[in-house]
Amino acid sequence: MQNFDVVIVGAGAAGLFCAGVAGQLGLKVLLVDHSEKIAEKIRISGGGRCNFTNRDASPAQFLSENPHFCRSALSRYTPQDFIDLLRRYNIPFHEKHKGQLFCDRSAEDIINMLVAECDAGGVTRWQPCSVKDVTAEADGNYRLQTDRGPVSAGQVVIATGGLSIPKIGATDFGYRLARQFGLRLVEPRPALVPLTFDGEDWAPFAQLAGLALPVLVETGAADATPKQRKKATVFSEDLLFTHRGLSGPAVLQVSSFWQEGQPVRVNLAPGTDLPNLLLQAKARSKKLIANELASLVPSRLADAWVSADPALQRPISDATDKALQGLAQRLADWQLVPNGTEGYKKAEVTVGGVDTRDLSSQTMESKQPGLYFIGEVVDVTGWLGGYNFQWAWASAYACAQAL
Ligand code: FDA
Hints:
InterPro entries: BaiN-like, BaiN-like_dom_sf, FAD/NAD-bd_sf, RsdA/BaiN/AoA(So)-like_dom, RsdA/BaiN/AoA(So)_Rossmann
Shape: elongated
Number of strands: 21
Radius of gyration: 25 Å
Low-confidence stretches: none
Domain RsdA/BaiN/AoA(So)-like insert: 189-349
Distance between the termini: 21 Å
Bound molecules: dihydroflavine-adenine dinucleotide
Strand content: 15-25%
Organism: Polaromonas aquatica
Mean pLDDT: 96
Domain RsdA/BaiN/AoA(So)-like Rossmann fold-like: 5-401
Protein name: NAD(P)/FAD-dependent oxidoreductase
Structural class: alpha+beta
């Protein structure tokens, strides 16, 4: 039996980073992953360039049953700390949009850096290697049955991530282990994921597949009061029509907040005073409504919208003010109820996970002494834009300091 101070299960973002820091603090670390390839999610992230953090990360961009849980870890390992690490490795990067930092060359730079950090800490890496069983022994140590034989360690860190993209190695190992040790779970569900609609409801919009436009989008209860709506998080990003529904950054963002049965509300013409502009057009133009509308929103959208309503297929000069105001109102507050999401196959992350009530926000240690959970397996989920990696680094760092 081989003995280690700590075994970390999952060599993704959080596991690799935690292993490197713990190793460099002098601990004898074993890092185990069942996948052939290391850190596959880092490799495919950010279109291959890894949006590795967000300059403006703060607890406000994270979802959790306890929104305060992430505070301590995020404040002790900041985006600037990770930027400093990249600079030590001379990794070039750039800011793309709203504080999002990407590698200039490739996500491979981040993976190589994390592996080099593990090497600097003398970390033992077993990959591919499956962990069959984890038990707490009477002597206070953990015993893990692995493909490469049994190992023993005083502490175990679970960094097996969420459920998204099962084909590159995502499993529910972390959740099962949490349950085995009596820890609570917040029901996991796919997030940062395209939304889908009933075939019939979607038929008029299916022709718009491929169209992208800037929108405002939010979600909430169908009967939300104006006060509740004021509190809803509104995203100002691009929306993308697909054959089955809606995607693009705006929709991925709102999908993390969406609950089954709730509508999403989309303003398809933000910053445009549609009611007034349509009434002005009526006063001066004999063109079809679709043609006038096409000067205010993308023409494909204008055509699809107007073709769904026979009352709008006429010259704008013939339309009633009420009809034009109704058209403007529907475009500015398009409400539609998704029938679901594209699921874990397409989701970037998982909302929910190990319940933070059973974890220390200072150390990530669970109520089961010596058992820690870091990264996406925990019920902390970031918005789109580099926040999920920042949580992986920050939770890993907090844990490594405590091991
Ligand atoms: P991660 O998933 O990285 O690692 C978990 C590891 O555990 C994997 O290596 C897996 O093989 C291993 N594992 C699982 N089960 C196991 C078992 N039973 N035994 C052993 N090992 C096991 N975020 C962001 O901030 N910026 C971005 O640009 C993107 N882009 C992006 C694109 C796409 C397509 C996806 C799917 C996701 C993103 N994300 C992202 C999210 C980000 O990738 C994610 O939040 C982090 O990788 C989470 O890090 P973890 O280390 O917690 O899990």
